[in-house]
UniProtKB/TrEMBL annotation:
Protein known as: HAD family hydrolase
Alphabetic keyword roster: Hydrolase
Species whose genome carries this gene: Streptomyces andamanensis
InterPro entries: HAD-like_sf, HAD-SF_hydro_IA, HAD_sf
EC nos: 3.1.3.-
NCBIfam families: HAD-SF-IA-v1, HAD-SF-IA-v3
Pfam family, one: Hydrolase
Gene Ontology MF: a single term: hydrolase activity
Amino acid sequence: MTAVLFDFSGTLFRAESTGSWLRAVLAEARQTLGERELAEAARGLEEAGALPGGAPPVRVPAELAGLWGVRDRSAAEHRAAYTAMSRLVPLPDPALHDALYERHMTPAAWAPYPDAHEVLRTLRERGIGVGVVSNIGWDLRPVFRAHGLDAYVGTYVLSYEHGVQKPDPRLFATACAALGARPRDVLMVGDSREADGGAAALGCAVHFVDHLPVAERPDALLPVLGLVPHRAPADPAAPAHDPTD
């Protein structure tokens, strides 16, 4: 292996709980809900799948199904899809739905898994290229910078910047090319067999982790280090290779 690609949400980072998300936005807006009303609203938002990076929706209304299916294709579609799901839940001020969306894009709304720093740092020390390939509608780079992980990432390939979503192999191919790695020498690590498993069609190896709360998943990324040994020094006499090979 010469490179490892990681998914973002549920793999390297986890979004805050729906309750924490709602509380933070209410506090910023200087609005209050009773504990019972707050719990009911948070439960409704979770069932609606309104928090990007949170639980998937229990049910997608027919009128939103088309938009939901392409939500990671562009920034506009991402915002429209998630705010539409949020608006299925009554809140004391309609402006709170947009505020919730804005909140989820802040570094404070995300926490890295406990072993993420160690794994990314060790891969870099071993000379292994690291990329992030994410279905997303906004720029997650500030989240990595705020949590001290950006220095370990060689490339970010984000669906909304390319107009295609995983499992489309073009996203994985773009990441491999950016890292100068052949797909057969690349490991993709993610939590979605459907989306992240798309890397296998390109020839990448794939390793899955469970999308769990941070406190419940302290070391699931560590096995990646066992799959990726120290990189051997490059042979200057070896012929150049095509990264997309």
